[in-house]
Amino acid sequence: MKPRFRSRVHDERVAARIGLWLGITFGLCFITGLLSHGIQNPPGWFTWPTRPVSLYRITQGVHVISGIAAIPLLLAKLWSVYPKLFGRAHILERGSILVLVCAAFFELITGLFNVAQNYPWSFFFPTAHYAVAWVAVGALLVHIAVKLPVIKRALKTPVSDEPAPGMSRRNFLFTTGAVTGTAVLATAGSTVPWLRDVSVLAWRSSNGPQGIPVNRTARAAGVTRVDPQWTLEVIGPRLRSFTLAQLQAMPQVEAELPIACVEGWSASARWTGVRVADLLRSAGADPMSTVVVESLERAGKYRSSVLPPNHAADELTLLALRLNGEELDIDHGYPCRLIAPSRPGVLQTKWVSQVKVMS
Fold first, then answer.
1. What is the pLDDT of residues 306-359, one digit of tens each?
2. pTM of the model as a whole
3. With DSSP H G I counted as helix, E B as strand and the rest as coil, what are the percentages for the chain, rounded to 5?
4. 201-246: per-residue pLDDT in tens?
5. What residues does each domain of the chain span?
6. Residue 18: CB partners within 8 Å, gap ≥ 6?
């Protein structure tokens, strides 16, 4: 009887090398995902720096791009070990593989839907994505521990090919690398500016009013009209109120800062406005304070955000009034919005109505 799986790519040497690449992408994706989760849900010991100003843009870009790269690598890895999935294996090995594959597919597929801002499920994506990431990494570590002798042996063995029909091992590895590189190149332009002209599948690179993308519009937030009598409240040891004209009359600061979102896209822009630190001083507060920024938006998880002391005191943390030299479009947060260096876009609160010192 002829063997069922005759392709040379069903080989431990191929599987080990693709597994190494896959482990690197998973590791990058996991670590940068932890950072993003920590910024949005900071434990008491966690501090995220304000410099460099593009730090979050870089880490979240790596998170999404490494996730994209992991998709063809995971498929190639499964194909290389396909015969083993039907062979005899220790229950711990078989169980870790099953959990790992299910968790990996869950993370990558839901991640793709998140990038597209399409949520055809009832659970809250960030919480589920974070929880299953730990499951995936735990299963991966168990799998590596079980297969470590095989991995070490396979990586030390050259990838040679005997004359035979079909794709060679080296060509399979080359094709896998080429497909992975193409996937990265086609999407990385969403966060890497100099790749935007060649990234044909890049999302959210330039669409939106004033040339900057928008995730949540004013209509979606229920802020379709701003009261002409709008005032900004700054609550510290003293209560201060500012009209839009008064804010415009204050010393204005212009800063080139990126807006970087959890979906992985980012764009740089010129923001002009008032330093949050100056507003805090006007209310008798120490700029090195924890601050809550409230929006006119009445509902939604991100209608307010907490600004930690190092961001509140930073000279580039602004309540922006203008974007790229123009008055803010309402979809960008008119009459004013928060813009701070190295922060996720969901925490750059729009339609700001109140700045309150907490500590």
1. 999 999 999 999 999 999 999 999 999 999 999 999 999 999 999 999 999 997
2. 0.92
3. 50, 15, 35
4. 877 656 789 989 999 999 999 998 999 999 999 999 999 999 999 9
5. 12-195, 211-357
6. 73, 76, 77, 80, 173, 176
Pick from 306, 321, 229: nearest CA to 272:
321
Question: For residue 330, what are its two tokens?
Answer: 């309402």
Which residue has tokens 């998709």? 71
**CATH code given to domain 211-357:** 3.90.420.10
In terms of Cα–Cα distance, which of 225, 227, 185, 180 is closest to 202?
185
DSSP 52-115: STTHHHHHHHHHHHHHHHHHHHHHHHHHHTGGGGGS---HHHHHHHHHHHHHHHHHHHHHHHHH
DSSP string, 108-139: HHHHHHHHTT---SSS-HHHHHHHHHHHHHHH
